Amino acid sequence: SLGVCYYPEQDGSNFWQSDILSINQLGLKYVRIAEFAWSVMEPTPGNYSFDWLDQVLELLEAQGLKVVMGTPTATPPKWLIDSDPTILPIDINNNVRKFGSRRHYTFSSENYRSASRRITTELAQRYGKHPAVAGWQIDNELGCHDTVRSYGSLDLKAFQNWLTQKYKTIDNLNNNWGNIFWSMIYNSFDEIELPNQAVTEANPAAWLDFYRFSSQQVVNYTFEQVEIIRNYSPNRFITTNMMGFFFDFDHFQVADLIDFVSWDSYPLGFLATSSFISQSEKDYYSQTGHPDIAAFHHDLYRSMNTRNAFWVMEQQPGPVNWAPYNPSPEINVIRMWTWEAIAHGADVVSYFRWRQLPFAQEQFHAALRRPDNVEDQATIEIRQILQELNSFNLQIPNTQIASVALLFDYETNWFFSIEPQNVLYSYVTIAWRMYSAIRSLGIDVDIVRPGQSLKNYKLVLVPSLTVISQQALEAFQNTQATIIFGPRTGSKTDQFQIPQILPPDILQTLLPLKITRVESISNLRKVNWNNKQYDASVWIEWIETNLNPIANFVDSTQNRGAIYEKANLIYLAFWPADNQFLIDFFTFYTNQLNIPTIQLPTGVRIRSRANWKFAFNFSQKTVTLPNLPNCSIILGSTQLAPYDICVWVCK
User: Fold this and answer.
1) Handedness of CA 187, 192, 195, 197 (dihedral sign)
2) Per DSSP, what are the bridge partners of residue 67?
3) What's the pTM value of the predicted model, to 2 decimals?
4) How far is CA 429 from CA 277, 293, 445, 572, 579, in A?
5) Of 132, 115, 108, 102, the residue nearest 35 (C-alpha)
6) Does residue 314 have an active-site annotation?
7) DSSP per residue over 577-594, as a string?
8) Which of 139, 253, 361, 525 makes an SS bond possible with 536, Cβ 3.0 to 4.6 Å?
9) Taking Cα atoms as reference points, which of 214, 209, 217 lies closest to residue 174?
10) Of the residues 314, 340, 381, 541, which is catalytic?
């Protein structure tokens, strides 16, 4: 199904009836509303105004549309801030982040949390059993605009309390943090400072715990709203809308609280703001988005749910307003993005927004209709999508478990952000590059969390896993999958210390090698694997082991090993300088494991939903797709034009 984000409080009541009729006539099924409407719902403290929302819901219900009700807590009203200015977040430089935009609250404010629970309760009691309400969205883009971490007095006190509960005694904290170094000993939890604004770098263990604490605050806040809605709105789904390339809190923990994850897909904005994508690729894909950006997030958020499904709550409909530059998608690209989301398992794709707003901060953000209320390009493409969906006599099957999994860990990203040791070292970069390389072979990917069972996979990619828990170790042990580990795996303990037995810590019980030294480098080193030389950069590890390497550093006078293998476990002791090594390496092992690959033209990707296969052409050229055996084309052609799609059903 398809949907739209609608803002009746912003557009005015003169539009409501015609808008909602048009939404239905277009063929959309879901409408998200109200996530920014707190000051309209509660203009003054305790005085609620819901008549307008009652009317909107009545009109939506009359058209048979299903409503996703947003809790409006991303936009606290001015009267609430004035009643307690400590609600406002404090940035890393100790500046107050003032009222006047959105997300102007710290998760550590109990007064704010109380107000959040109160407005959520009012909404859930009033609309929880309304026949038009199909489900709920918690808040909006949790943590957006760098708001997961706040550095004020309320945050300090909450952090001290969190540390007290975790460590029990101050001696335990001092030992775990290694505070004997630089005379950083604390005598009580009340003495502990936040780790920002120190003279030089603060203790990395303190930073890590602050990141963990801040993430847990988001989880606790979400739980409060979920609990209220479960109580007053039974048999309705609960979701929240995640973002692209945003890792400041552990999304897996939030996903555990809700029914499924949604996310907001803005492929052109994410391309423009991604530092790890080359300028040449940014230029080439400037009006389509890189073929692996949206796909990575589709797979990440789909895999967080046991139903193996997700929503796109906000799909980019045209130029946006918030990236460094904001080109228009090429004609037909919105159709391609929509089908891509469906191919990756989306139950619903919802477009942001119904009508472009002529005022305030998002005036340049395109919508399904222009400010003059004339249909824009996205609406034309939506009609085509709906015609195509309705033309199928078959129901699109659910996604199935892939042959390949990529293990993704939010904490590992925090470790490397705190202590990169090379300005170019980025967990997201190496994770995304592994994903992109395996996807370029026409292979579907599931993205899994540490400790999740790996028994159903043939190949598992671990870009890095800084801390190897016992649960994660057992998952590695209890699978026959080939597992490829990237550098820095097992490089730290849970308290940000080098393991006593050296990295990769307890993984040594399965893979007997030690990392005895690491180098972060600015130049290129050569690696010889399979009679071919490849470039290594950024990170090099020295290995001590009785295993024979399957690849060596060419320029090492000691002929040091670069890749080691034992049984089904493989360890890379370097950072590949480009994707060619990863593509060749993954091709070698997928062939060994009888995982089918497809030689795809540049910019083309394939994705499966059971026996349905979908191809997408992000390139600027018409390409010829390979013939798939025992498959019939039901949409498109093997002569795939730029920004077009092809769909097969296979026997």
Assistant:
1) negative
2) 31, 133
3) 0.97
4) 9, 12, 17, 16, 11
5) 102
6) yes
7) SSHHHHHHHHHHHHHHTT
8) 525
9) 209
10) 314
**Beta strand ranges found along 546-622 (DSSP E):** 549-553, 561-566, 569-572, 574-576, 604-609, 612-617
Task: Report how far residue 474's alpha carbon sits from residue 466's, in angstroms, rounded to the nearest whole number.
Answer: 16
- What residues are paired with 485 via a beta bridge? 462, 571
Exposed e or buried b per residue across 341-361, where buried means at least 16 C-beta atoms within 10 angstroms of its C-beta = bbbbbbbbbbbbbbbbbeeee
Query: Which residues are bridge partners to 571 per DSSP?
Result: 485, 564
**98 Rama class: left (phi>0) / alpha (psi -120 to 50) / beta:** beta
Other CB atoms closer than 10 Å to residue 300's CB: what's the count? 24
pLDDT in tens, 91-130: 999 999 999 999 999 999 999 999 999 999 999 999 999 9
Q: Side-chain half-sphere of 484: how many Cα atoms within 13 Å? A: 23
Q: Which of 9, 42, 141, 411 is catalytic?
A: 141
Rg (CA), the chain: 26
- What's the CA angle centered on 439, arms 580 and 426, to 5 degrees? 65
Residues making up the chain, counted from first to last: 651
- Residue 136, H or E segment: strand 133-137
Cβ distance 476 to 507 under 8 Å? yes
Asked if 622 contacts 641 with a C-beta cutoff of 8 angstroms, the reply is yes
For 592, counting Cβ atoms within 10 Å of its Cβ (0-12 exposed, 13-18 middle, 19+ buried), the class is exposed
* Residue matched to tokens 């009729």: 21
Question: When comparing pLDDT for 70 and 627, which is higher?
Answer: 70
Q: Helix (H, G, I), strand (E, B), or coil: what is residue 264?
A: strand
Q: Is the dihedral of CA 507, 511, 514, 518 positive or negative?
A: negative
CA distance 480 to 568: 7
Do 413 and 556 touch, CB atoms closer than 8 A? no
| Residues 349-365, mean pLDDT to the nearest whole number | 97
Q: Is 193 a catalytic residue?
A: no
* Cβ proximity of 497 and 505 under 8 Å: no
Which of 359, 367, 354, 276 is CA-nearest to residue 320?
367
